[in-house]
Task: structure prediction
Amino acid sequence: MTEGSPGPPGPPAGALPEPHPALRTRLCALTGVRFPVVQTGMGWVAGPRLVAATASAGGLGILASATMTLEELSAAIDDVKARTDAPFGVNLRTDAADAERRVQLLIERGVKVASFAQAPRPEMVARLREAGVVVMPTVGARRHAEKVAQWGAEAVIAQGAEGGGHTGVVPTSLLLPEVVDAVGSRVAVIGAGGFFDGRGLVAALAYGADGIAMGTRFLLTRESTVPDAVKAQYLATPVTGTVVTTSVDGAPQRVIRTPVVERLEGAGRITTLPRAVRNAVAFRRRTKTSMASLVREGLAMKEGNELTWAQVVMAANAPMMTRAALVEGRTDVGILPTGQVVGSIDELPTVAELLGRVITQANEVLDLLAPGAATRS
Result:
């Protein structure tokens, strides 16, 4: 199916469903969104168009800033604000050389949420919270959730192994209840990894979560700027068509299994290291990131594990190879990060149609489980 195809019918424009009372969760109260659904900050994908579409439709859109310069981030925030007055968030790199300036930018522009793929520093959490910005790190282990909650984070995204990009080994069905049990009384917990519809949203609520976060599902919408041919490759991928590999940058990352990935997995260090060095230099130039910051990012990716300097250098491979595929359409040299859920997606709705369907289905499931228990106003 191409990006211009109509897809299954969704709610008419401006007629998004009224959510079941059970869907008015702590996440909604904390961030001011209508629906407890987060669009994650995917590098090279989560730009102003997708974020604004998500926010306008009632979800929480997260702008990806790790691949932007400070000036580009400033312009992107202005772009989102020009498209919608709904709340949205920005994903930040904790170890960016200009991280403090980015934090100040979010505060000055009144951005509602600051999300982090890595654990933010305690002083960063305190500064954002004092300014009224909700801090929402992504975690892959119970202990990480406990740590950021202790520092004052008001929400966490618990991403299970089914998720795309850098991921852990614990499935969402086990990680999510663990995190809820550990910190759910103190912070809003959002489940990620394997979610794509209203049934998944209700399942997350059953585990005690306050909502869900989706990446691949939002990548495969009409507002996503990923090239049509690349979207078609995603849509053609079966649920068994992904692989978690360390061959891209030394850290486990879920991607679509393509000839590029197979070559990477079969290549030796002599072949991969020179390419990694070139990508590190290219990434540094494009984002104005210091080499020291790249090294810190590589170390953070493998926190607690043995790491060679070759693996540290390889840390720049992921963003540059992702850009090649998702921006330039060069799937012959780039990688396609994805959640395992890609095999359950076969069409490209608008963001409003997607959120309308998710909430409508969640309403139906909740009504089926407890008929007459609550009346939507």
Summary: The first strand starts at residue 37 and ends at 39. Residues 269-287 form the longest helix (19 residues).
